[in-house]
Request: fold
Amino acid sequence: MRIEQDTLGEVQVPDDALYGAQTQRAVENYPISGLRAHPVFIRSFILLKRAAALGNRELGTLDAALSDAIARACDRLLGDAEGNRKHFPVDVFQAGAGTSFNMNCNEVIANLANVSLGGHLGEYKPVHPNDHVNMAQSTNDVFPTAIRIATLLLLRELTPQLDALAVAFDDRGSSFADVIKSGRTHLQDAVPLTLGQEFRAYAAATRRATRLLTASAGELRVLGIGGTAVGTGMNAPRGYRQVVVRNLNALTNLDLVATDDLREAMQSQLPVSAVSGALRNLALELTRITNDLRLLASGPQTGLAEITLPAVQPGSSIMPGKVNPSMLECMNQVLFHIIGSATTIDYAVQAGQLELNVMMPLMAFEILFSIEILKNYLPVFIEKCIRGIETDRAQCEAYYISSPSLATALNPIIGYARAAEIAKESAKSGTPIPQLLRERKILSEEEIARIFTPEFLAGQAD
Reply:
């Protein structure tokens, strides 16, 4: 162990640790979950520290040699993100606002910079964590900026997977375009549609929810960096925030902009709430679709059984041959977690007081974890579930052809009253409507053949 000193006194730090006293205090104070900052969040912090060091050099407030050493340290961390994760041990549940994690980053960068200049771990000479790495910054403007950057970077990985899900639904829709089935409203028989139309509607819903998520993410591009402690910019040189945002854009290509009101950016975390809400809405839509698929696949003998899912694993430890909708069940669990995280973020966002919201570490963890688990699961879900869905055409036809609701298609041909009479007789006797039309010679075979086609029964809305 080595002995370091902070404003509260001496602290023992592991001898080979790149972090320092304040990080060690946080490790000891918050041994809560064992969860650590998301790799993209760490990356966002390092990118921000690099952009700030270069900005301070450009504005003449930071010596060029120190700025270069900080930049090199940041590049080293960015170049071996996985190997360097051990140097960021602060729990995601920590002191308010994220000061512990900010200082963790400052200490690691300072130590790496000093070693590159011939110094030693824990001495903080000539590069100091607060004076140089954190120059013109406060946790209060750095942490929310990093949340925004990290969320944008991770959404950039999620969006293509959502697009792929919509494509997969559309592909299944094309395959099922001629499969007529009974519609269901109120979970009761309704007029027919095609299975393809159901799946194309799933694709449309996914795309709409994705568009709303993308639109809300635009709010994250407005940054309050340069506001320092309360949004007044104290200790930040003139032009600092514009230079840092310019540097961040060069590093991330995210089209970031400096906010017009630094006070508002410090007080309010509305952009995080907007994205969290859009994620919740996406999760609710996907939950609805997932539940539909579970219903359609229910059976195989005592459920709807209109579709069959790929078998991915045995479904029971006691019932031989049982196969469950495992991929759909896992998706539900992922989506439920996202919905719960959104509620957590709601509470955190409203907890801001006066010039600061101190609940930002919780927001950062919940929103990034939500994006991460959905991003990770979607490719497997698409490949092992959606793309392999097949249909039982005979089952679909048996349901729709025996449904009294099929008489609705006869309204414009034989009138509502006569169609209602046919529907009642079909429901009472169990005789399919086409058979009744033949037996009672109400329509010719040519007319019946024309009516009971996908184009006539379900094609009007296309």
